[in-house]
Design a protein that fits this description.
Organism: Microvirga arabica
Number of helices: 23
Strand content: 15-25%
CATH class of one domain: Alpha Beta
Shape: globular
Largest sheet: 8 strands, mixed
Protein name: Adenylate/guanylate cyclase domain-containing protein
Pfam families: Guanylate_cyc, TPR_16
Helix content: 40-55%
Number of strands: 14
GO molecular function: nucleotidyltransferase activity
Distance between the termini: 64 Å
Low-confidence stretches: 173-184, 316-328
Structural class: alpha/beta
EC number: 2.7.7.-
Radius of gyration: 25 Å
């Protein structure tokens, strides 16, 4: 085998499938133009060789890492200039990774660890970003005209050890806080602020992962109910699962003063939970503790940890003020395990994921039919089936959701998540008054309930109050800035613009949401009419076609049955769907 040291640039188009879904011909034409007028000339000017083009990606080899980095920066700058003023659905954006390493030569192709690492660096880059390995940065940093930000060590897919990476973004020079979400850093609130990070499963058994996740879920819920605290929502904290980042970065990204880290180890019927509270500004350890007990004592151990965290964050707080979670405990840990396993699938807002969640929740309810959390989560899965048109009988899905939600609330009427889910279900049933009481009660119990705030935003959308809706969505985004469900907050903001009669703004927000979650094809049922109302007829037709492929039985009648906008808004959207040729029934 022939080997040589080379600088490798890997590039990939952001959201290529989404762009192709909107307008295949135009996307391919734009991509070919960019390769001809921007990518290839800049590579050639910097003495690079295009090894291969892979549909929406490219692999380039350079003899000099300085040339590779300069080419990457020039390409991103040129694309940013090209995209300026263009609508979101016309923007071709790249993620770029650059590595300096050993490569294997085979004909005109290259292979090896040097190539693999460049590809993995590209995957963690954000739109418009260039990400370098530490080796590439060491050799190029002082010889290029841009400043890269040290993003610390990161675990990359199929790379054995963490890799230190450096970022630069064409959007303002410095890289954004996280490549996966594009969210900016946040100011730290004046009140005590904390994120409970995913605990490590030290048992060596993947089947026990639920135990570690369940501990985090319970502690986060308990701390959230202390009104003087600012607590990052679970879904954002879990964005760090499996990733190695220093606490200073996490503090900046989430806007918190403290993080709680820990591990859970199970051996037979015994469990050990190790936790440490860390200040993010300087990385100082406030305290660390081990908690041992029988597996049956897991809930008591969770409560003890919560009390100590609360006391450390705010020493003046009295034990009586610690509003610990007093949800009804499951009668069997098997029900608890299945419910924890279902959690990530419940919140994905995708049809197959909701089906997986329901299968797990049904197993939990077979073991413990009166477990409120499992009942509530099952209610939310059925509610999704109704509102996202995943079932033929929408009315039946709404009835099932209401029945499960009411039963959960009867068994546990002071649990914020259960109240919020029931509020969402009543929203879809057009019981807006009941929904508001339940959602406001949930927030009174848990002022950090990001999802309850989001559902209040949706309630305001459906009630025809778009400005109030916008405020709730923004608060939810701040409480959970890395939440994988945040695309739905952007759908909510887009819907608020749609209700307010601002179709151009609505279309851009719908496209942003679809960009973040390309599989959420149900967004097209609102995007297509918004594009048409904004005068973007060709894009509206492409969106309509994407909707028809994903939902071949979609009709205006089914849209009206599923959605709960005010009558004027509902008819206005339905009229635009008619103009696009969507069948009436």
């Amino acid at each position: 085998m022939q080997r040589r040291l080379a600088a490798v640039l890997a590039a990939d188009v952001v959201g290529f499938s989404r762009l192709m879904g909107i307008n295949e011909t135009r996307t391919l034409r734009d991509l070919i133009e960019i390769r001809r007028t921007i990518f290839s000339p800049i590579v050639a000017d910097n003495r690079g060789r295009v090894v291969k083009l892979m549909g929406d990606g490219a692999l380039v080899e350079f003899a000099s890492v300085v040339d590779a980095v300069n080419a990457a920066v020039e390409i991103q700058r040129a694309l940013t200039a090209r995209n300026a003023g263009s609508p979101l659905e016309r923007r071709i954006e790249l993620r770029v990774g650059v590595n300096l390493g050993d490569v294997i030569i085979e004909g005109s192709d290259i292979y090896g660890d040097g190539v693999n690492l460049a590809a993995r660096l590209q995957e963690v880059a954000g739109p418009g970003e260039v990400v370098l390995s530490a080796t590439a940065h060491e050799h190029a940093a002082s010889r290029v005209d841009v400043q890269f930000t040290d993003a610390g060590e990161q675990s990359l897919k199929n790379i054995a050890t963490p890799v230190r990476v450096f970022r630069w973004s064409a959007a303002g020079g410095e890289a954004r806080a996280t490549a996966t979400t594009g969210k900016e850093t946040h100011e730290v609130p004046e009140r005590p602020s904390i994120a409970v990070l995913p605990f490590d499963n030290m048992s060596g058994d993947p089947e026990q992962e639920y135990l570690a996740d369940g501990v985090v879920e319970a502690i986060t819920a308990a701390l959230s109910r202390i009104r003087s605290f600012f607590v990052i929502a679970r879904n954002s904290a879990f964005a760090y699962k499996g990733r190695h980042k220093n606490v200073r970065e996490i503090g900046r990204e989430l806007g918190v003063s403290y993080v709680l880290e820990g591990s859970v180890q199970r051996a037979g019927g015994r469990v050990r939970i190790t936790v440490q509270l860390i200040e993010t500004a300087g990385g100082a350890h406030i305290w660390a503790e081990k908690y041992d007990g029988a597996l049956d004592d897991i809930f008591e151990l969770q409560d003890r940890i919560t009390e100590q965290v609360a006391g450390a964050l705010q020493p003046s707080i009295r034990l009586a003020e610690v509003e610990r979670v007093r949800r009804k405990r499951p009668q069997d840990l098997g029900a608890y395990g299945y419910t924890m396993q279902a959690m990530p699938h419940v919140w994905a807002l995708e049809k197959q994921e909701a089906e997986r969640a329901l299968a797990l929740l049904n197993k939990a309810l077979e073991i413990d039919p009166d477990y409120p959390l499992a009942l509530a989560l099952a209610a939310w899965c059925w509610a999704q089936r109704s509102v996202y048109s995943w079932v033929a009988n929408v009315s039946d899905a709404k009835v099932r959701a209401l029945s499960l939600g009411e039963r959960a609330a009867t068994l546990s009427n002071d649990e914020p998540l259960i109240l919020a889910i029931l509020g969402a279900v009543h929203t879809f049933a057009r019981n807006f008054g009941t929904a508001r009481v339940l959602l406001e009660r949930a927030i009174a119990l848990d002022p950090n309930a990001a999802w309850a705030l989001s559902r209040l935003g949706w309630l305001e959308v459906y009630s025809g109050r778009p400005e109030a809706a916008h405020a709730y969505f923004e608060r939810a985004l701040r409480l959970s800035p890395l939440d994988p469900m945040n695309f739905n907050n952007h759908v909510g903001i887009a819907s608020a613009f749609q209700v307010a009669g601002r179709p151009a703004k609505a279309a851009d927000e719908f496209l942003r949401a679809l960009h973040e979650r390309p599989n959420a094809l149900w967004i097209h049922r609102n995007l297509a009419p918004a594009l048409l109302a904004a005068g973007r007829e060709e894009e509206a037709k492409a969106s309509r076609d994407a909707l028809a492929r994903a939902y071949p039985e979609f009709t205006i009648a089914r849209f009206k049955e599923a959605m709960v906008f005010d009558p004027d808004t509902l008819e206005r959207i339905a009229d635009d769907l008619r103009k696009l040729g969507v069948p009436e029934a």
